[in-house]
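in:
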């Protein structure tokens, strides 16, 4: 008995310190690479594998793992400390700073609430259209702000609207069928759904209750009619279940739509920005990627994926009746008018649009227009006005100019004390410093792989993949990235794979964009688990969904996203980026090079 107790205590202690054990044992197990083999490639491989394991397991903060190149590369003689330090702040960070300045102003002055609620007031109260309205609003927001920010902006609105809808149904219940909203409840069911809409972690299973109705003999016909309008226990159970299913669909839809919308623009999500900066560093002569043609490629992917995801979520959570797609609704019932009024009241609470919202909206539109017209490709852009310095101006320049503008433009008129549109404290609270450091560590790792020759060694190793059709190679890369990104940070995933996939494309003599673009977009297809990305975690914390709900929905959405991406790359992506030709800006790989 004593031995068993001691063994139990030992196992408990090991589990409590499993993170520390992993931190210590991982480098010890990898030590043969730098000590036994001893080449520069092996030493850089040691750093890469150590960082990959730490990033995947998150035993130490991601940003601190990103600091390892600054420690290990000088010790291994791969790069000097000053050379590594230069990799940690670059054009990507300036673009991120400018975009976060705008996002801070949008959130501070409430423009995000107006953007999120407006589509909902337009689409109506049918569960399907309500779901699409919220998903569209969140996807649009995530095109311009970080995905996590978009979800944290929209979820409180979704939670409040769902509560109001349930309240409207409770007050307006008349016992008649409601095939549109399908949230009819009596008091006990409404209470349970209100609990579900709070911070509870598991929805309660509705208990079956029975209603006793006494029928006076002298008014039998009227009583019969009243009895028909009294909901039975099965109807109440059905209403409760439908209410919970709508909550699940709405919450999962918000998380997924933020990831789907984020891929649409270059600053929409961190992997896109990391990819753009990697391209600028590894292929400095490549001018194929800009805001405009990325939008042309990814906007159709986002629209297709969003619509199919909407239908998929409707089918698995709400119902399989898709007649609403082609049937025109007649005159709205009293119930529908009541629910519509609730949504309109929520929008009216925002009041008239403020001057701060207008200015923020103007900055937002100007930023998009300047990005689109800087160097559109098919015609000279405004960047050509600076003929000798056109290559010096990037999207980061535009973002910084408009971002800094928000720090000194007065938020109010001269009748009030001076206050800028945003303050440093507000910006600092919104700035994702962890992502900034993570990306810097990724760039340092990529530079170390190039300096040590590890990239070339990986390219030689992967040369046999050139015998496969290009689309097959792309599909394999997409599936590997999509699988890994379910358990690893999106930014960490793309940071690991970009230095590997670039030499792979060169080795098989394929346009690097043909492989890098799909791999980058696939890192955003992390739909299976709450830990897959922060938006999933934020939605899961509300307690409306279980992990199995997310897995069940995420498997289908992963397939939808990958198929839509492959369709785009194989069709309009080829002429858009000349993917069928090997570009001059990519180096020619020679497999016989010593």
């Amino acid at each position: 008995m004593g031995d068993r107790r001691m063994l139990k205590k030992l196992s408990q202690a090991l589990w409590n310190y499993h993170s520390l054990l992993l931190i210590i044992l991982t480098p010890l197990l990898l030590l043969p690479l730098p000590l036994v083999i001893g080449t520069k490639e092996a030493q850089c491989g040691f750093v890469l594998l150590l960082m990959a394991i730490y990033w995947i397991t998150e035993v130490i903060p991601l940003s601190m793992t990103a600091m390892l190149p600054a420690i290990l590369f000088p010790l291994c003689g791969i790069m000097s400390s000053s050379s590594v330090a230069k990799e940690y702040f670059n054009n990507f960070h300036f673009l991120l700073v400018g975009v976060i300045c705008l996002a801070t102003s949008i959130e501070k002055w409430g423009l995000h609430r107006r953007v999120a609620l407006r589509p909902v007031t337009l689409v109506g109260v049918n569960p399907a259209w309500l779901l699409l309205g919220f998903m569209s609003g969140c996807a649009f927001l995530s095109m311009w702000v970080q995905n996590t920010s978009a979800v944290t902006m929209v979820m409180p609105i979704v939670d409040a609207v769902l509560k109001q809808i349930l309240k409207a149904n409770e007050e307006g219940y008349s016992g008649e069928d409601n095939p549109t909203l399908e949230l009819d409840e009596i008091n006990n069911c409404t209470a349970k759904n209100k609990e579900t809409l709070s911070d509870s972690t598991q929805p309660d299973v509705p208990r079956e209750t029975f209603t006793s109705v006494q029928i006076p003999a002298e008014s039998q016909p009227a009583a019969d009619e009243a009895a028909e309008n009294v909901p039975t226990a099965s109807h109440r159970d059905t209403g409760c279940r439908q209410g919970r299913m709508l909550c699940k669909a709405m919450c999962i839809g918000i998380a997924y739509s933020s990831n789907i919308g984020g891929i649409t623009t270059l600053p929409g999500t961190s992997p896109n920005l990391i990819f753009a900066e990697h391209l600028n560093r590894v292929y400095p002569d490549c001018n194929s990627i800009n805001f405009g043609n990325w939008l042309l490629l990814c906007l159709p992917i986002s629209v297709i994926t969003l619509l199919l995801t909407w239908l998929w979520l409707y089918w698995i959570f709400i119902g399989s009746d898709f007649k609403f797609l082609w049937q025109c609704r007649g005159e709205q019932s009293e119930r529908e008018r009541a629910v519509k009024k609730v949504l309109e009241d929520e929008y009216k609470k925002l009041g008239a649009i403020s001057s701060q919202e207008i200015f923020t909206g103007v900055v937002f539109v100007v930023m998009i227009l300047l990005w689109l017209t800087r160097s559109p490709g098919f015609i000279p852009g405004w960047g050509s006005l600076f003929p000798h310095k056109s290559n010096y101006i990037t999207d980061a320049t535009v973002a910084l100019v408009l971002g800094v503008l928000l720090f000194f433009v007065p938020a109010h008129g001269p009748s009030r004390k001076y206050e800028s549109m945003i303050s440093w404290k507000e910006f600092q609270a919104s700035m994702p410093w962890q992502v900034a450091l993570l990306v810097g560590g990724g760039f340092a790792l990529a530079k170390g792989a190039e300096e040590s020759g590890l990239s070339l060694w990986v390219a030689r190793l992967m040369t046999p993949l050139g015998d496969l059709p290009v689309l097959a190679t792309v599909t394999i890369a997409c599936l590997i990235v999509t699988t890994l990104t379910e358990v690893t940070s999106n930014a960490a995933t793309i940071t690991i794979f970009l230095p590997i996939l670039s030499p792979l494309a060169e080795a098989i003599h394929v346009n690097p964009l043909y492989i890098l673009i799909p791999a980058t977009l696939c890192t955003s297809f992390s739909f299976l688990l709450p830990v897959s990305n922060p938006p999933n975690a934020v939605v899961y914390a509300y307690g409306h969904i279980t992990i199995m709900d997310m897995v069940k929905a995420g498997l289908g959405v992963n397939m939808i996203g990958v198929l839509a991406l492959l369709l785009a790359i194989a069709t309009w992506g080829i002429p858009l980026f000349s993917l069928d030709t090997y570009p001059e800006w990519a180096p020619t790989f020679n497999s016989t090079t010593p």
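note: The CA atoms of residues 166 and 190 lie 7 Å apart.
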